[in-house]
Amino acid sequence: MLIVKKFGGSSVADKERIYNVARRCIEDYQKGHEVVVVLSAMGKTTDGLLAKAAEINPNASKRELDMLLVTGEQVSVALMAMAMQALGVSAISLNAHQVMMHTNSAYGVAKLQRIDTQRIRNELDAGKIVVVTGFQGVNRKDDMTTLGRGGSDTTAVAIAAALHADKCEIFTDVDGVYTADPRIVPNARKLPEVTYSEMLEFATLGAKVLHNRSVELAKKYGVELIVRSSLNHEEGTVVREGTKMEKMLVSGVAADENTARISLIGMKDEPGIAFKLFNTLAMHNINIDIILQSVGRDGTKDISFTVARTDLKDSIALIEENLNNFTATRYEYEEDVAKLSIIGAGMTSNPGVAARMFEALSNIGVNIKMISTSEIRITVLIDRADVTRAMRAVHDAFEMVSA
Amino acid sequence: MLIVKKFGGSSVADKERIYNVARRCIEDYQKGHEVVVVLSAMGKTTDGLLAKAAEINPNASKRELDMLLVTGEQVSVALMAMAMQALGVSAISLNAHQVMMHTNSAYGVAKLQRIDTQRIRNELDAGKIVVVTGFQGVNRKDDMTTLGRGGSDTTAVAIAAALHADKCEIFTDVDGVYTADPRIVPNARKLPEVTYSEMLEFATLGAKVLHNRSVELAKKYGVELIVRSSLNHEEGTVVREGTKMEKMLVSGVAADENTARISLIGMKDEPGIAFKLFNTLAMHNINIDIILQSVGRDGTKDISFTVARTDLKDSIALIEENLNNFTATRYEYEEDVAKLSIIGAGMTSNPGVAARMFEALSNIGVNIKMISTSEIRITVLIDRADVTRAMRAVHDAFEMVSA
Fold this sequence. Notes:
Mean pLDDT of chain A: 90
Distance between the termini of chain A: 32 Å
Low-confidence stretches of chain A: none
Oligomer: homodimer
Number of strands of chain A: 20
Strand order of the largest sheet of chain A: 3-6-2-1-9-11-12-10
Shape of chain A: globular
CATH topology of the largest domain in chain A: Carbamate kinase
């Protein structure tokens, strides 16, 4: 079996942890598997390099920033290969140039385009564990690029896809994907399996287990992903196309507190007004989430929508500036809100799911301010103060508890 | 004019020094020159990386060590390019892969074989200062190599040769090459010019201004080298083929305290005995320096020679083991000795130079134990305790004092 294993920066932060990872990889190697390891920079290395750059030139070109940052992973992979050698196993480290991980030229947020497999294949054939730098690539000019935060997940999946690996294990500090955040819902249960689409919804909703781009890539190329802990040998959660029995209607509950609601009151009930509003926000890179439009009355209507709380200030500034243009008489906003979502691939084919969620919230007196639904997700906007008890109630209502 | 400028690790150890180097390079750039800058790793970076490697695996493969070490220069060049950009100048950093600096595969002590010039040429044509990693290369397997300590000097000279640069400036913490070590001979004078051969003798004799391989390379390709201080704008010393007037008979005096004398007594006066002795030492990588053979008497002879003091222990062990084989009755050795040399291209064509040196030593009662001469050098072995006053006396005798 060919296995790609990815470890983040905290998993290689010091000698002891480097050796833990080395031993973990050697276990599979000694079972006869081929092992490719993808690593991030050690601990806070990347932050340290960014601070150094900021000291020299706060407006440094992104090309030079990437040239600087890629040294971080190169240190990790060289030290890891040394640790494996010390444990008596043949290992070799490779950087983005040596593998040839081709990206576009968007320094700092580059996208992987193609990964050459020959060098890795040759080293595997020579009986070595291959340790590869995550997070980085090379563009057509032969310059170094980085994939942005969380990019090492993407590197691991792309390498797994290019090598037709049997699985791609992403090691994190959690055991896998849970039905809800165990810090909030104590009886949350670890999911043995989720689909790519569910995983994407979990990631979008703030359960930051996997980088979104890596899940999209895994879905595109059918790479079997496994999310598991670097601290123990628990099975973890398998992310793959939905082949599971339809027993679990709802896979999990997730909350997102980085949200705020804005309402525009008394807008003219004419075509094109909503477009004007949302286009203006989009032009300023502000993403709109849930949208609610009141039924027109007396020739006016109200529009409410949510934005990321971090975008609230900019949104308000744009609205004040364009209030006449948007034909609104005034605006309101609310910061103390949160989104609560249930996620599950079986949702659409099972009526009554939304009703059961709303009933659970109603039973404990939680008011629903807005509603949004997708194929595999139902999201409601509620007061932020209600998040914890709402999450628990919904979790219980769908019986997602441990067996 | 195309100028290659090389700065060592201490010249780029912190923000202030990085900016000093950046400004110094920009001065030339703004005069209309093309500038290529070669840098070592910042301050003690290389030592730090070596310590990290030793912590993980004291017997790490040299291939992985080089993979680790090359990150040091990459950090330097990226930060330097950022500093130049902050000063409003277009600059770009390049590593060994991006330039393509081809070496053999002798990890840790690799030899440069060829440097591609196209990328550097393109960036110069685009009006940029090009900042290149010293000390490193890429072998035919696409793996990273390092050239060994002092290798950045070699990188600079090799790039200057490949680009047909007009000059190659090596910046150090001294003003240039002196007639003697100014800490020992207070009235020592800075030499405006020396030949490649003289520079090689100075380097070999412990005046560690330039790495020997870089001088050999400069000689081979006729690269005009300039040794100057990174701390001031003094002219420095030009190293080039000997076109200077023959005014200065002797360019300088240098001492080497890393030496020891060994004597083998009562060897058979037969052909092949000396060969046996020196061949045995050579097979164990022990270099012999001055050799003195007594005239045969009673069918026996004595042979004395010097080795580096750091090789003394190994030499003695070999001699004890082979005493019968070498037909010697016994051996002696002396550790408290030093070599004192005068160096000068005009020496051979001027008789009486050796006599003047010996007279100066005799006048102050310094005993000469052994003598060795080359085309441009006369070396004597003396007691180590006499080095300082011997150096001053010889320096005075040849009137090498400041004007």
